[in-house]
């Protein structure tokens, strides 16, 4: 296993152990030199969304079509499968490099044409290009598409470009340079200073200053001794949020590098990455990355020859949202039920096995290499003063461009929905945006100028949370959404404390009554008072923030609640007890499809004549709505 | 029976005999046998030194463990917010009615287990269903019906 | 009644309801309050076992400088200079809602009915699922069996609203020594009803 970085005829076995930053650098240069500058490559997005939509088959079809074309292609391109590009609503995505031609909604059957038209004839396939919804003009290059143009992809800079299962891609892109710098050019305390100066705040939801957290762990060790542990929280459970999944799947080495640097800063030698049960691909990519990193001496004993030892164990979640809460997570790693315990003494002081423990979110760790590489001043220059840097959001719901986006902190909410989200399909404006998941609040259209940063969102009554942004339109009922979130949390509550276990159930009962048109206006005031009790009395943040969706919707949409209770109407047409399904007699063609699919057999009518629904028997299951090809079934 | 015992022994030997490996062991047993039997749990407790009550508390606390055998085919309907807004509740109700099974339960013939799962992170494809680890995007009640009928015939 | 503190531990001076009090470092607010005869209601607290913070009835509001925080006194460590209010508006609100919800959760418990009445809560608007229920899942039985008796015969089963106290697989416990500690610490009498299920039928010398 001899390697010298002097000879040009060097041989680099894939398992070469890097014993110094110089060796890492030399390997990187070697890889870059080996790359054929004339060889193009084709990226096929392999994020979970695109894979579920068939991108694996697309990649296979591309390979087959390229093989078939054989010599007709002047230079055979590489096929590179990468993590999530973020434009999930347009997947499967295919991007040709270095030209940057962007194809969306690609099917396996399109690949022959791509090979013929683009690879051989050098022309774009028009129908696969993204078209601006307003002008219908096709946009060829992906950096010109507003969805991408208006983002600032800094944390996600590698995702969509590298193959996450091949460490060489990461190394060529500069991976582990920050680690080398930290280990060889900085003292641990200096690393903490840089993180403090950068202004980085936790990306998991609470937004606690990361540098301060690390410092308190160091101080705890000085007071009571170690060992100290470091944990990456990948238990991303907010429904509608998939930022951490994308980071773990698409750039696992960024997670590892941030975690190793953090360990060096606080003096930890054992770390954990807690990955949610529902993310098998993330665990797979992290495992592969860890194995490759170990082989190169970037993880394990004597990292990069520096003498620093640190290794990581992946802990797999077992299906409990509450384990995203720090104390519950700690208990889970200890092999116990994920019940929360009061944080009058922080985990930084007493965590895993009562030792000082630092727990940070996955995205938080991914920010660390950037801060080390480019300096805290650069980082603090992004975003806004109390919320520096960028944030990754999952923009979902009633928005044209559903997907994963990264923006500098401080962008107005409305801009995010319009300029990046492409607005609400079929409507002029959104009704509300739910930020922060079940712990957050609904911000109405009137608050669209609210900057998306920690403090502005809190002031507006919501919170940043982990980054889920759910856009709602007039067809979404706030009472139903509040009930949905409470029902979710009720299911996920650990059940230990009364305000949460009983309180969520009780709030749900009241909301359920509202959704059936029952209850009185004084119930609204009682709900508010109960919500305050749950907020104040709950043991952990699950119960403590559970009332937020209720409190914000009550504040901004009180009239909608009153419509349910006083008018017995659901303006959005959602709450089952308050809506009626009926068939538009003009539009109905009498095809009978709805009647055949009705489980209650409550639709009657003669062939080719308008049908009718028997309201008394209708259970509002929606089968008729799904079946009708003529939009004749209506909900009111 | 003894082969099964040996198989469980193989799983148990994968991890050190310490309490923090309780969940790792239960996960591997769940993956291998589709449920956790009292015998398996007792073996895990012997190995890790964890009292039976703690193992039982853990097995009933976390959703991914089942104390009863699951069905041949697992149908998972995502309950994430995006899916909820696109009608996942109705999908679950329809399936529950058609298969005569409560969410979380298994059909009498042990063919299907119907589960509601937390957000899978594929929100652009809402509503999402996963059947036997295969993802189905933008499902409707009819689409699900077709897939399930096809599987039932196999 | 002020306690005489004879120790070398650091003395913490703070206030409860604007009254000056002293405690040793490491004490909780509840322990201090009891030393001074200041009443704070509890249900899931017992000197024999570690506190768990489940019932939340012992909430107090801690004022420090500009901010205040509602915390549970059974686990909150005393701190220099804080002013603890045991009956602030926020505290009263938390208590009365917990008690009203408990009336629906454990309708058969006399103790809870009495405690609720003390705080003016005599009826509940919430659904009563089981009119015979007395268990409020304070966990005292589980903790005493684990920490004091050391056999861990019972446990909480399940999660969230479906949680209950039971034995593995619902079978009578093989490790229960029938000491009755769980019944002794149970604040509502619920354990008395469950004991036979835990202990199993008594058929002769064990």
| Main beta-sheet annotation of chain C | 5 strands, mixed
Beta strand % of chain B: 5-15%
* Low-pLDDT windows of residues of chain C: none
Structural class of chain B: alpha+beta
- The CATH class designation of the largest domain in chain B is Alpha Beta
Whole-angstrom Rg of chain C: 19 Å
Mean pLDDT of chain B, to the nearest integer, reads 89
* Count of individual domains of chain C: 3
**Strand fraction band of chain C?**
15-25%
Question: Helix content range of the residues of chain B, please?
Answer: 40-55%
Distance between the termini of chain B: 29 Å
Largest interface: A-B, 57 and 48 residues
Can you put this structure into words, describing what you see?
The complex is a heterotrimer of chains A (636), B (154) and C (206). Chain A is an alpha/beta fold. Chain A is 39% helix and 13% strand. In chain A, helix 12 links the parallel strand 8 (270-275) and strand 9. In chain A, helix 7 packs parallel to helix 11, helix 11 packs across helix 14 (362-374) and helix 19 packs antiparallel against helix 20. Chain B is α+β, with helices and mostly antiparallel strands. Helix content of chain B is 48%, strand content 12%. Chain B starts with a helix and ends with a helix. The relative contact order of chain B is 0.12. The model of chain B has no long low-confidence stretch (mean pLDDT 89). Chain C has 206 residues and is an alpha+beta fold. Chain C has three domains: 11-87, Ubiquitin-like (UB roll); 89-133, no CATH class; 140-199, Alpha-Beta Plaits, CATH 3.30.70. Chain C contains six helices and seven strands. Chain C has helices at residues 29-35, 89-105, 110-118, 140-149, 181-185, 190-199, and strands spanning 11-16, 19-24, 59-64, 67-72, 83-85, 155-157, 164-166. In chain C, the strands form two sheets. In chain C, strands 2-1-5-3-4 form a five-stranded mixed beta sheet, with helices on both faces. In chain C, strands 6-7 form a two-stranded antiparallel ribbon. In chain C, a hairpin with a 2-residue loop joins strand 3 and strand 4. The chains are: A alpha/beta (636), B alpha+beta (154), C alpha+beta (206). Chains A and B meet through helix 2, strand 13, strand 17, helix 18 and helix 25 of A and helix 2, helix 4, helix 5 and helix 6 of B.
């Amino acid at each position: 296993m001899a390697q010298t970085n002097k000879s040009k005829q060097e041989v680099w076995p894939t398992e070469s152990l890097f014993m110094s930053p110089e060796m890492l650098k030399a390997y990187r240069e070697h890889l870059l030199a080996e790359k054929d500058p004339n060889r193009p490559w084709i990226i096929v997005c392999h994020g979970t969304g695109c894979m579920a939509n068939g991108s694996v088959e697309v990649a296979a079809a591309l390979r087959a079509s390229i093989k078939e074309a054989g010599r007709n292609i002047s230079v055979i391109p590489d096929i590179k499968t990468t993590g999530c590009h973020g434009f999930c609503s347009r997947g499967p995505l295919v991007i040709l490099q270095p030209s940057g031609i962007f194809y969306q909604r690609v099917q396996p059957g399109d690949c022959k044409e791509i090979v013929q038209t683009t690879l051989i004839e050098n022309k774009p396939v028009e129908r696969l290009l993204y078209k601006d919804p307003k002008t219908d003009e096709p946009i060829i290059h992906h950096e010109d598409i507003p969805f991408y143009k208006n983002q600032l992809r800094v944390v996600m800079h590698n995702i969509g470009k590298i193959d996450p299962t091949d460490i060489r891609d990461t190394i060529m892109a500069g991976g582990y340079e920050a680690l080398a710098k930290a280990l060889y050019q900085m003292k641990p305390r200096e690393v903490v200073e840089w993180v403090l100066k950068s202004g980085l705040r936790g990306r998991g939801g609470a937004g606690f200053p990361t540098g301060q957290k690390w410092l308190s762990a160091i101080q705890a060790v000085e007071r009571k001794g170690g060992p100290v542990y470091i944990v990456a929280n990948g238990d991303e459970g907010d429904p509608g949020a998939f930022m951490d999944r994308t980071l773990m799947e698409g750039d696992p080495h960024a997670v590892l590098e941030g975690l190793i640097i953090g360990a060096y800063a606080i003096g930890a030698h054992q770390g954990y990455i807690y990955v949610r049960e529902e993310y098998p691909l993330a665990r797979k990519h992290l495992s592969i990355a860890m194995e490759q990193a170990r082989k190169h001496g970037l993880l394990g004993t004597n990292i990069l020859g520096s003498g620093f030892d640190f290794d990581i164990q992946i802990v797999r979640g077992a299906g409990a949202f509450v384990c995203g809460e720090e104390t519950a997570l700690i208990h889970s790693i200890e092999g116990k039920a994920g019940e929360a315990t009061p944080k009058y003494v922080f985990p930084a002081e007493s965590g895993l096995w009562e030792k000082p423990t630092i727990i940070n979110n996955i995205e938080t760790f991914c920010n660390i290499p950037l801060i080390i590489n480019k300096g805290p001043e650069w980082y603090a220059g992004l975003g806004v003063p109390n919320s520096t840097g960028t944030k990754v959001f999952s923009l979902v719901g009633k928005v044209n461009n559903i997907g994963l986006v990264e923006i500098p902190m401080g962008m107005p909410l409305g801009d995010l929905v319009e300029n990046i989200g492409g607005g609400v399909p079929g409507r002029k404006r959104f009704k509300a945006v739910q930020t922060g998941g079940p712990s957050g609040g609904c911000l109405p259209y009137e608050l669209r100028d609210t900057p998306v940063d920690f403090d502005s969102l809190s002031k507006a009554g919501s919170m940043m949370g982990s980054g889920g942004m759910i856009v709602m339109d007039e067809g979404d009922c706030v009472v139903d959404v509040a009930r949905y979130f409470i029902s979710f949390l009720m299911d996920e509550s650990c059940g230990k404390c009364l305000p949460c276990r009983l309180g969520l159930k009780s709030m749900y009962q009241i909301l359920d009554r509202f959704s059936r048109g029952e209850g009185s206006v004084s119930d609204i005031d009682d709900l508010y008072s109960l919500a305050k009790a749950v907020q104040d009395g709950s043991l952990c943040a699950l119960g403590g923030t559970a009332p937020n969706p209720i409190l914000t919707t009550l504040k901004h949409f009180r009239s909608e609640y009153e419509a349910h209770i006083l008018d017995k109407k659901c303006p959005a047409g959602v709450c089952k007890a308050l809506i009626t399904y009926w068939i538009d007699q003009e539009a109905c063609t009498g095809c009978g499809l709805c009647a055949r699919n009705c489980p209650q057999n409550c639709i009657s009518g003669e062939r080719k004549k308008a049908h009718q629904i028997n309201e008394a028997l209708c259970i509002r299951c929606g089968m008729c709505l799904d079946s009708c090809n003529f939009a004749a079934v209506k909900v009111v | 029976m003894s082969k099964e015992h040996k198989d469980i022994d193989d799983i148990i030997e994968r991890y050190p005999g310490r309490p923090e490996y309780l969940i790792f062991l239960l996960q591997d047993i769940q993956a291998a046998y589709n449920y956790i039997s009292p015998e398996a749990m007792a073996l895990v407790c012997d190995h890790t030194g964890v009292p039976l009550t703690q193992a039982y508390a853990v097995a009933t606390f976390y959703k991914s463990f089942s104390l009863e055998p699951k069905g041949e085919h697992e149908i998972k309907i995502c309950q994430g917010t995006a899916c909820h807004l696109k009608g996942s509740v109705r999908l679950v109700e329809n399936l529950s009615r058609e298969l005569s099974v409560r969410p979380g339960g298994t059909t009498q013939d042990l063919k299907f287990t119907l589960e509601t799962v937390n957000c899978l992170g594929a929100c652009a494809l809402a509503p999402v269903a996963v059947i036997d680890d295969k993802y189905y995007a933008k499902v409707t009640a009819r689409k699900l019906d077709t897939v399930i009928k096809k599987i039932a015939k196999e | 009644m002020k306690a005489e503190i004879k120790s070398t531990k650091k003395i913490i001076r703070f206030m409860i309801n604007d009254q000056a009090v002293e405690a040793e470092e490491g004490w909780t607010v509840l322990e201090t309050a009891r030393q001074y005869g200041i009443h704070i209601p509890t249900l899931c607290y017992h000197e024999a076992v570690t506190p768990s913070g489940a019932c939340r009835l012992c909430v107090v509001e801690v004022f420090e400088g500009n901010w205040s925080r509602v915390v549970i006194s059974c686990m909150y460590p005393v701190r220099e200079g804080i002013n603890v209010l045991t009956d602030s508006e926020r505290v009263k609100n938390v208590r009365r809602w917990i008690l009203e919800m408990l009336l629906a959760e454990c309708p058969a418990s006399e103790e809870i009915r009495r405690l609720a009445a003390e705080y003016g809560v005599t009826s509940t608007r919430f659904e009563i699922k089981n009119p015979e229920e007395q268990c409020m899942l304070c966990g005292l039985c589980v903790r005493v069996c684990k920490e004091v008796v050391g056999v861990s015969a019972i446990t909480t089963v399940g999660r969230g609203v479906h949680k209950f106290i039971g034995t593995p697989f619902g079978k009578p416990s093989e490790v229960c020594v029938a000491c009755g500690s769980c019944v002794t610490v149970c604040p509502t009498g619920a354990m008395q009803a469950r004991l036979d299920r835990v202990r199993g039928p008594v058929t002769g010398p064990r």
